Amino acid sequence: MLTKKIALAGLAAAAATLALSGAANAQARDQIRIVGSSTVFPFTTATAENFGRGGKFKTPIVESTGTGGGMKLFCAGVGPQHPDLTNASRRIKKSEVEECAKNGVTAITELNIGYDGLVIASARSAKPVNFTLAQIWKAMAKEVPVDGKMVANPYKRWSEIDPSLPNAPIELMGPPPTSGTRDSFNELVMLAGCNKVAEVKQALPDAKAHEKACVTIREDGAYVEAGENDNLVVQKLTANPNAFGAFGYSYLDQNRDKLQAAKIEGVEVSVENVQAGKYPVSRSLYVYAKNAHVGVIPGIREFISEYTSERAMGDDGYLVDKGLIPEPKADREKARNAAVNLTALQM
Amino acid sequence: MTDAVVSDRAVPVYQTAEFERRLRRRYAAEKRFRLYGIAAIGLALGMLAVLLGSVVAKGYTAFWQHELRLEVFFDPAEIDPQGTRDPAVLAQANYNTLARNALQSVLTDAGSRDARRAAGDLLSVGAAFELGRMVMDDPSLIGTRRVVSLPVSDEVDQLLKGNVSRALPEADRQITDRQLAWIEQLEAKGDLVSRFNTRLFTNGDSREPELAGLKAGLLGSMLTLFVTLVLAVPVGIAAAVYLEEFAPKNRLTDLIEVNINNLAAVPSIVFGLLGLAVFLNFFGMPRSAPLVGGVVLALLVLPTIIIAGRASLKAVPPSIREAALGIGASRLQVVTHHVLPLAMPGIMTGVIIGMAHALGETAPLLMIGMVAFIVDAPSGFTDAATMLPVQIFMWADSPERAFTERTSAAIMVLLGFLIAMNALAVILRKRFERRW
C-alpha cells in the first residue's frame, strides 16, 4: 500500500514537473535578466531595486557571473532564454562583439556608468604609506630582475625594496584569480608597475614572456588570496597593521572608520582624482544592453534610463552612496543620450 | 603433572605481582582510551560551541532594528493635490517630502535645503516607500496626522547598536557631527526605539541592509526542497528496495552498486554543470527556477538516500522475511507489509541527511542561475528564486557594515529551518517506528 502511494506520488510529481516546464517555455519573460561583472553587481542591483520600487515593472534579476562569463551568456543569442543586459568591468572586446554578431546579437548599446578605483588599504593604526606601482610590482611579482637576470623574488620586507617603505614583512591580501578585480589588479597594478621597471624588458625581450613575467604573482605567502569584498579582510587588516589589502573603492568607502588607503604614485584615492584621471589604478565600468530585446522584454528602456539618470549615477545619486565614482557631467550626458537613443556600439 | 605445577608456585597465577601489573596496565589502557574518547567529544562540542557562539554573538543584534517614531502629516497638497485619490497619482507622490517635513519639525536647525537632506538621510530609503504603501492601503490617511514608526538608515542603526564608535573623528565615520547631534536629540526624547526586526522575514533581498529580508530565500528553499523531496525520496526508496530485495546478485548489479557509491562522492558543482547542460540547454527549462534547482539537488541526494535505504533494509533480520514467506506471503507482500515498515526509521535518517545536505548547497545552484539578486519572492516552481545559503553568501559579500550581523542572523535562520525540517522527519520516523 505504502509503496504504491509513494510510487503514485512520484509519478504525479514527475508529470507535473514536465507539464510545468513546458508551460514556462511557452510564455515570454516579463522580468529583465542581467548577468556579468561582480564589480558592477552592487550598482546594478541597487538600480534594479529602485527600479522595482517604482511598481510598474518587476525587479530585474541580477546574476554575478564575472565579466567574461557574462559576455558569453549575453552573446549566446536573441530570445527570452538569453539575458538582456550584461555588466562589465572593462570594455567589450572586439572578439566578443564578433561572437555576439555571429549569434545574431548585432545591435548593442554601451553605457559607461562610472568608475571604480582599486585601493591598497591598511588598518587606520598603521602609518600612512605612499607606493609607486613599480614598488608594488616588485613586492608581488614571482620573479624580479636582479643584475639583469630574473630570479625568484628575494624581497621579504617592504624596506628591502625601498627604504622609504615600512620595515615590515610584505603581506598583501588580494582578490583570487576568478575575480574581475584580479584582472584589474593584474592590468592596472602589475602590468603598469612592471613596465616601469626597465630591467625586466632587458632580461626578457620577448613580448609574451615579458607580459607573463609581469602578471605572475608570487606564491610564497606574501600575496594572500582573499575574497575581494569580504568582511573578513577588514577584520584581518585591523588585527594586523602590517598587512595591506587590495579591493574596490566602495569597500574602502564603507569602512573608512577602520581602513585607510595608501597613496599610489603620490596620489590619494578620491572622486576628484579618479575623475581627473590622476589616480592611476581606476577603471571604467560598463553596462551593455541588447537592443533586440527592447520592446520584447518589458522595461529595458526604462531600466537603462533609470540607470543613467542623475538620481542614480549623478554626483549625489544613490549609486555614489554605494561606492561608485561618478563620471564628469559631460560623460554622464553622453551615457544618457546612448540610453535614450539606444545608440548601437561601433567597433 | 598438574600437581607439580601447582606446587612449583606458592600462589596462583592471578595473584602474582606480574599479573597484577599487567592487569593494572590493561585497566589503565582502557581508562586512557575512554579519556581519548571523551576528549574527542569535548573537542567536537567545543568547536561547535565556538562556531555557534560566534554566529549568535555576531548575529543576534540583527533581529532588532531601530525605528524612529515620527508624527507625519499626510499632506493632501503633497500627495494628491487634485483630490482624485487615483492610485496612479498616489503611487507617484513624493513621500520623501512628508518624512522630511516631519523631521524638520522635530529637529533643531533642520530648515535649510541642505539640512533637510542630511536629516532625511537618517531614515532608510525604504521609509518613503513604507509611507507610500500606508497611503495606498488606506487613502483616508490623507489629511491626517499619524505617529508612525519608520526604519532608520543602516548607518544610524549601526551607530545606535554600538558597532560604530561615536568617538571617532567626523571624517572617519559616515554619520556627520550634525546628524550625530540630531540622533542624540531624538534619543533623549525617546523617539528612537529598538523593535523586533520583522522586515528580516517579510521582505525580499535588498541592497539596503535595513530593508533586506529572507522571505525570497526562505520561500525559494521551501519550493526547491519540495521538488527535491518528491523526486528523490520515492525514486531513492524504490531503487534501494529493488536492489536489496529483488535484484539478482550479478556483475551488472555489482557495477550499479559501485557506481552509486561513487556518485555519492562526486563534488556537487558537477551536478550543477549537468543541470546546466541537460535541463537548461537541452530541455530548455527556465533559468533560476526552483524546479530545476530541485531536480539537480534531487540527483545530488539520491545516492545518499539509496545507500542509507539499502543499509537499513539489510538490517531487517532475514527471519522476518522467511516467516512471512513461510505463511504464504508473496515477495511484494513481504516487502510492503514487513520489511519496508521495519526499515523505515533508517530510510528516514538517510532522507534527513540528504535533505540537510541539499539545504546547504550553493555550488550546483551557481551554474543554473540561482545565485542571483532576486527581490520578489517566488510564487511558483518556475519563478526565479534563490535559496538561503545563497542569500548568506551574497550578504557576506556586501560591503555595507550592517550586512555583517545580518549574515550571521541569516545563518541562524538557516539553522532554524534545518532543525524544523529535521524535527518533522524525526516525528514522522517515531510514528513509523516498529519494534520487534
Q: Which of globular, elongated, flat, extended, rod-shaped describes the shape of chain B?
A: extended
CATH superfamily of the largest domain in chain B: MetI-like
Q: What's the CATH H-level superfamily name of the largest domain in chain A?
A: Periplasmic binding protein-like II
N-to-C CA distance of chain B: 53 Å
CATH topological fold name of the largest domain in chain B: MetI-like fold
CATH topology name of the largest domain in chain A, in short, is D-Maltodextrin-Binding Protein, domain 2
CATH architecture level-2 label of the largest domain in chain A: 3-Layer(aba) Sandwich
Structural class of chain A: alpha/beta
Biggest interface found: A-B, 50 and 56 residues
Counted beta strands of chain B? 4
Q: How large, in whole angstroms, is the Cα Rg of chain B?
A: 32 Å
Structural class of chain B: mainly alpha
Instruction: Please describe the biggest sheet of chain B, giving its number of strands, its sense, and whether it closes into a barrel.
Output: 3 strands, antiparallel
Number of strands of chain A: 13
Average predicted local confidence, pLDDT of chain B: 89
Q: Which second-level CATH architecture of the largest domain in chain B applies?
A: Orthogonal Bundle
